[in-house]
Design brief:
single chain, about 280 residues, alpha/beta, Spore Coat Polysaccharide Biosynthesis Protein SpsA, Chain A, 2 domains, seven-stranded mixed sheet, 12 helices, about 40% helix, about 10% strand, transferase, nucleotidyltransferase activity, Acylneuraminate cytidylyltransferase, Cytidylyl_trans, Nucleotide-diphossugar_trans
Length: about 280
Amino acid sequence: MKTAAIVQGRTASTRLPGKILRDLPLGSGITVLEQVIRRLKKCRQLDYVVVATTDEEIDDQIADLCTNTGMDFYRGSQDNVLNRYTKTAEAFGADIVVRVTSDCPCIDPDIIDTMVEFYKNDGTFDYISNNRPRVYAHGLDAEVIRFTALKEADRNADLKYEMEHVSPYITGRPEKFKIGSYIPEALTGGEDIRITLDNKEDYTLLCAVYDMLYEKDNYFGNESIVELFRSKPWLYEINANVQNKVKFENIQDELKQAVKVLDLQELYTASDIIRQKLRSE
């Protein structure tokens, strides 16, 4: 049974273009993407760590970085991320896929290892995650997916939402797939911390965290992060106004959230159209 961590990444981020190619620590010459890969390579439960980027010209620079630094990579569809994951897993012969995004440069190798062990020891799950419910900081998220489930999702998914976000086809069908959550026995807190990278405020915070922790331990983990934020609560303020991306279980929940946002903007005609669609389903 081969286990591969597949890290999705592209240059054309809408909020902060080129974010995964920024230095971390600042001025170090080490990119955010490299920090993610270095951390995953510390995992004992992984056979491969692969970057899954797009086949768009703009992402040649990611491919070049991977080539120059010895990182394995695969290039596929820009918009159909589900297919990109499936093709990457096929190319590397993965039976188990660990999904991590490239904007999480504080990903904890120990958490990944314990998640994979939990998944393997059970032996019946098609999918598990560590954010349903959230028990770690935003930025320590991961999913473990059985390749056969991923392949079935890729074969049958026909909604843009399902293709862009990889796992909704699976998580939206609990009658077909066995879905679980990884919750550690000893909770350390931290679910109120945001250390993922979406915009400039996030990058400022990550630079501060790395400045305080990286020199002492290049692979500082969850406990060190939580301890740092508890001792220096002003860190929360750096990106306090940033809205965390919400991942929905299904398209209906996303539409309900869209109605709320449209109503706040007084775009009632659009929200009424969505309401009518929800009532008809």
